[in-house]
Amino acid sequence: MDESPLTTPPAIENTARAVCLKVLGIGNAGMSVLELLVAGGFPAASTAAINSDLETLQASSLPAKVPLETKLLRGLGSGGDPERGRTLAEEHAAAIKELCRGSDLVFITAGLGGGCGTGAGPIVARLAKETGALVVAFLMTPFDCEGSRRQHLAQKGLEAFREAADAVICLPNQKLFKTLEENTSVLGAFKLTDELLADAVRSFWHLATHKGLIDLHFGQLCELLRDQHTESAFAVAEAMGPTRSREVVEKLLGSPLLDGGAVLPESDSILVSLMGGPDLTIADVNRVMEEIASKCEGVQVTMGAAIHQDFQDRLGVTIIAARCVDHSSAPVSRPGIEGLQSQLLSGSSPRSGSRFVPPPPTLRPEQVEQLIARQGRGRGQKGGPRFRQAQLPLEIVSKGRFDKSEPTIHKGEDLDVPTYIRRGVALN
Q1: How many whole angstroms separate alpha carbon 291 and alpha carbon 132?
Q2: Cα separation values, 16 from 19, 39, 182, 201, 211, Å
């Protein structure tokens, strides 16, 4: 009989299931996240860097590299132009597909707002899906201080990733701004965002490919994400000591990345990954899951938990809140000029009637008979009332600056008099 994993915690390196994973770092920001992962123990053989910046690519210690280079660029990179990044990725499609071939799961890390990650990234995601892999993109959007142009490009790149990948996990850097100290350096701020994204990748990796106390099978992950085009928010928290379960929940629900917990009830599904030491108790797990479930009633929650020797007296929790994005739904139709003209000609109005309609007036029997008699005489019938249109007897006091001007007479007609009056046209 196998020993309980609570008493004999499995070593992570010996528990990996047969799921082939490849992590691709695209552009300078994606490569920075990848290098942090490798430095933290992630297997370097499962990584590859894709970049149009040859100088940065050559300086990297990552073993597998795909330079997006053409003679036209002369080693200068994409120049912050996403269109150039897209073109480069399409030109190197064969090499990118070969890199992903045979992988069950492909993670993509990239920063948005520049040329390579924003432009080439969605193309890489599409090519990876064409090889049959499940594709999850881990992305960063710029700080507001980086300028409106980068923000605009980042939003367009994010939309392209949502259409190309199975799931998108996005870290808006600006949400972290309120958590940074006043004297935090620029390098320190970007390093923090890189570390957070690396933590999300690492947690997702453990959740999907390593056996733990409570497994999230790879098949479940595929069923949850495959062709759903989800966008996700995430948060990572860790606590120590006897009150670790309560403290870790407080950190998660107070995280700006989850908008103080407001993201949870708006999600379609939530993944929770717990990592603890051999002293992790069932009460700890239950307390964390109860608190999270109480904030998102009716939302599908999937949980995975694992034991690691290094987490003695510690508890780490990662939440990934996913929302499905339907790109196939047709846009709401709005009447064009022709439709508007037909509405005007038919006399119908697109505006809905008021919900507050006054009651009909109370009429005496003789008043009802008179009303019916009036309605019986339709327009154009003999005996009906005939209307004669005439000019109103209004005295024109002054014509302003045209007071002394002569009337415009043409063929005996005063053109200053409106046409419908001169020609006796009845206005209905």
Answers
A1: 37
A2: 8, 19, 42, 16, 6
d(CA 93, CA 129) in angstroms, rounded, equals 12
pLDDT tens-digit map of 369-387: 777 776 655 544 555 555 5
Tally of CB atoms within 10 A around 283:
9
Low-confidence residues in the chain, pLDDT < 50: 1-17, 327-358, 379-380
Q: How far apart are CA 107 and CA 99, in angstroms?
A: 12
Take residue 398 and report the two structure tokens written for it: 């002054």
Report the distance separating Cα 175 and Cα 158, nearest Å. 16
The dihedral through the CA atoms of 214, 9, 211, 206 has a sign that is: positive
396's tokens: 């024109």
Site of tokens 């695209």: 26
Amino acid letter, residue 293 = A
Cα distance between residue 197 and residue 302, in whole Å: 21
* Strand 409-410 with 413-414, pairing: antiparallel
CA-angle at 54, arms to 52 and 56, nearest 5°? 100
Q: In DSSP terms, which residues pair with 21 in a beta bridge?
A: 105
Query: Degrees (nearest 5) of the Cα angle 135, 138, 139?
Result: 130
Amino acid code (one letter) for 187: L
Long-range pairs of 240-246 with CB within 8 A, sequence gap ≥ 24: 240/313, 240/314, 240/315, 241/313, 244/284, 244/313, 244/314, 244/315, 245/283, 245/284, 245/285, 245/287, 245/288, 245/315, 246/287
The pTM for the full model equals: 0.66
At 177, which amino acid appears?
F
